[in-house]
């Protein structure tokens, strides 16, 4: 069955690996879906009386009442018109940034929408499943539950002296014995582990003939990864370089982290054109709002990309300084362990231990977490209930000033509790 909207060139293109057939992975109702079409798909200019918009314009009047600068800029936009459903310019800039073509790019309302869409297009509720590797990002399980899709867990393991490695053999055993697993969701660098997944591990899963589904690699934090920290022989850290080769990979990225634009909700899926076309056919027609798309376009301009790189550099320096400070506190015997994981994201995962001891202590960690938030004005994330994260706090790298306050308050609290 041809995929609606996919050019004939891509319908027939050769795919690798040969054991992957997208038509067997995508739910039949999605494959046969006739996407929503509007007159604006064909005609974008003229007297626009096709979409039941408000012909008199929007109601925002920044000159009246609470006039803010941002309202002035927004009110000059055609906010009474539905946004562009295709967002080709943003896709082209993302493709440029990541060395792909626009046809490899899909845009969602944050990666969270992409996760939900991938589950919806692949997994039949109450029958098919996704595989996750705890400890990992919580939304995978939430989206699976919302969609009544089963979750299979293969925890990360310590291997070769490195923490939080993907247990490739266990995943391969699991997919062999359970043909209902349609999606594998990996996170690299992981949340909350900060650990990069070697591309050689990802390749093993993509090549595994027992796995007929799609491997999703969530790279929300990839720009914070040190390009030389990968212990593969090739120096690439991002799985994006596998997209042209493999039709069964989908890489997710986002403007929420390195670009500092969590508020505009712009998530990205990168994959071969058939999967991108199916995602586009399934999404709500106008998912990216006009204000968000304008801000995203600006964020993807050369000066803003330079600014992103500068911010990433500053945050990586801050991450190093935080780690040094945590090590100092640990040496003072205040009950803090060594940071866990790879430290390749914009946070550090650190165990709170028994006072004067080395054993992680969840009870004390919760007390530290609550004291910091309730009386010291510093909010971090308690992750001590996650597999392999006993007693851990996940602490986002802040500004230099915020980091200093955090360290001061944490030291005080550790001396007290
Ligand atoms: C691993 C991971 N993926 C995705 C997201 C969500 O990204 P977005 O803001 O694009 O929805 C987060 C947010 O914390 C995350 O940690």
TrEMBL record:
It catalyses: L-histidinol phosphate + 2-oxoglutarate = 3-(imidazol-4-yl)-2-oxopropyl phosphate + L-glutamate. The keyword Cell cycle does not apply. It is an enzyme of class 2 (transferase). GO terms for molecular function: histidinol-phosphate transaminase activity; pyridoxal phosphate binding. Keywords: Amino-acid biosynthesis, Aminotransferase, Histidine biosynthesis, Pyridoxal phosphate, Transferase. Transmembrane segments: none annotated. Its cofactor is pyridoxal 5'-phosphate. Residues 47-409 form the Aminotransferase class I/classII large domain. The keyword Amino-acid biosynthesis applies. It comes from the Eukaryota. Its EC number is 2.6.1.9. PROSITE patterns: AA_TRANSFER_CLASS_2. One of its GO terms (biological process) is L-histidine biosynthetic process. Pathway: Amino-acid biosynthesis; L-histidine biosynthesis; L-histidine from 5-phospho-alpha-D-ribose 1-diphosphate: step 7/9. PANTHER family: HISTIDINOL-PHOSPHATE AMINOTRANSFERASE, HISTIDINOL-PHOSPHATE AMINOTRANSFERASE-RELATED. Belongs to the class-II pyridoxal-phosphate-dependent aminotransferase family. This is histidinol-phosphate transaminase. It comes from Clathrus columnatus.
């Amino acid at each position: 069955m041809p995929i609606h909207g996919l050019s004939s060139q891509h319908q027939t293109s050769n795919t690798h690996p040969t054991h992957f057939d997208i038509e067997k992975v995508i739910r039949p109702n999605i494959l046969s879906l006739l996407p929503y079409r509007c007159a604006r798909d064909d005609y974008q200019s003229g007297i626009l009386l096709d979409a039941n918009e408000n012909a008199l314009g929007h109601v925002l009047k920044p000159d009246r009442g609470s006039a803010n600068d941002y309202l002035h800029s927004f009110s000059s936009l055609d906010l009474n018109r539905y946004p562009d459903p295709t967002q080709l310019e943003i896709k082209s800039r993302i493709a440029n940034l990541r060395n792909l073509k626009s046809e490899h790019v899909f845009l969602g309302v944050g990666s969270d929408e992409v996760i939900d869409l991938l589950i919806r297009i692949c997994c039949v509720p109450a029958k098919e499943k996704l595989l996750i590797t705890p400890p990992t990002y919580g939304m995978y399980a939430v989206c699976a539950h919302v969609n009544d899709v089963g979750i299979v867990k293969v925890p990360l393991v310590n291997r070769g002296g490195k923490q939080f490695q993907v247990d490739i053999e266990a995943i391969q055993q699991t997919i062999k014995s359970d043909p209902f697993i349609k999606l594998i969701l990996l996170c690299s660098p992981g949340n909350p582990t900060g650990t990069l997944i070697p591309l050689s591990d990802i390749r093993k899963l993509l090549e595994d003939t027992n796995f007929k589904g799609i491997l999703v690699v969530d790279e929300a934090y990839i720009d914070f990864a040190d390009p030389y920290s990968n212990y593969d022989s090739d120096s690439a850290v991002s799985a994006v370089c596998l997209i042209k080769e493999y039709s069964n990979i989908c890489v997710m990225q986002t403007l929420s982290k390195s670009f500092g634009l969590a508020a505009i909700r712009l998530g990205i899926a990168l994959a071969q054109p058939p999967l991108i076309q199916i995602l586009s056919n399934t999404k709500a027609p106008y998912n990216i709002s006009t204000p968000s798309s304008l801000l995203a376009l600006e964020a993807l301009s050369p000066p803003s990309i330079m600014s992103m790189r500068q911010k990433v550099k500053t945050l990586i320096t801050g991450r190093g300084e935080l780690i040094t400070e945590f090590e100092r506190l640990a040496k003072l015997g205040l009950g803090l362990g060594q940071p866990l994981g790879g430290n390749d994201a914009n946070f550090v995962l650190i165990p709170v231990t028994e006072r004067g001891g080395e054993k992680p202590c969840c009870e004390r960690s919760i007390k530290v977490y609550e004291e910091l938030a309730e009386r010291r004005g510093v909010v971090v994330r308690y992750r001590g209930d996650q597999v392999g994260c006993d007693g851990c706090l996940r602490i986002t790298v802040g500004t230099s000033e915020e980091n200093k306050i955090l360290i001061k308050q944490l030291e005080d609290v550790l001396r007290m509790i």
